[in-house]
Amino acid sequence: MNKNNPGVALVTGASSGIGRAAAKALQNAGFRVFGTSRRATAQSIDGMTMLVCDVTDDESVAKLVDEVMAKAGRIDLLVNNAGIGLLGGAEESSMAQAQALFDVNVFGVLRVTRAVLPIMRHQRKGRIVNLSSVQGFIPAPYFALYASTKHAIEGYSESLDHELRPFGIRVVLVEPAYTRTSFEDNLARPDQLLDIYDSARARMNLAVRKAMEKGDAPEVVAKTVLAAATDPAPKSRYAAGKMARQVSFLRRFVPASAFDKSLRKQLGLPV
Fold first, then answer.
1. Is 222:22 a contact under the CB 8 Å cutoff?
2. Where is the Ketoreductase domain (predicted)?
């Protein structure tokens, strides 16, 4: 692999939004791109080969990796993008709903990564880009379960990176803020709604909708994914977009009490 032919990329959740934009950016940079969707779609989108994969199913993930290897013979880059959201009070979700969320957002990443790692270790080369969020390092009221999955991915990614460096493999994080995708429309709702949270949940829904309208285009995040995938001296994490960079800076340097007060004020919560 070289600068003109960076290799083979596998992007999960590539049928729309950030995944689609990232796949296109990687393809424009010279990668041969395989994208996944949970349901069957066109076999090729803009020159990208689309394959079906349910990241919550071991056999589906194994079949995906076998298909990519049969067609391309290697995997140089894995972008773990597939994920779902959930907005509501933490106690409004049943354990089954919480487990289903973690099965996609956390264990889905683990499944695909574990399936790809033997290939990358054999190649003595590879890059894994995990899509996190600013909610992976800040509090996220009414997104507590979703934020927990992203916090888990942050810890997993940084730890795994240290394990894999001896094999020529690096693991990095991309952390977007609000992005103009269908994320808000596709947010799961709690399966055990409690009246006491109705007002706050409605305010948060409105806040998310307004933030999405002003959010970054998916191409902004895609540009960051490309940078994270090709950086010759990769960093642990890459903030995607102006807001994400600002939040990252504030989280690191603003006193905890001041950050807490500002967060509650912005979300319309009693200070």
1. yes
2. 7-199
Q: Where are the domains of the chain?
A: 8-241
Q: Which CATH number fits domain 8-241: 3.30.530.20, 3.40.50.720, 3.30.70.560, 3.40.50.300?
A: 3.40.50.720
pLDDT tens digits for range 96-108? 999 999 999 999 9
Per-residue pLDDT at 1? 52
Predicted confidence (pLDDT) per residue in 201-236, tens digit: 999 989 888 888 888 999 999 999 999 999 999 999
Catalytic residue selected from 37, 93, 133, 146: 146
pTM value? Answer: 0.94
Query: Catalytic one among 24, 37, 93, 132?
Result: 132
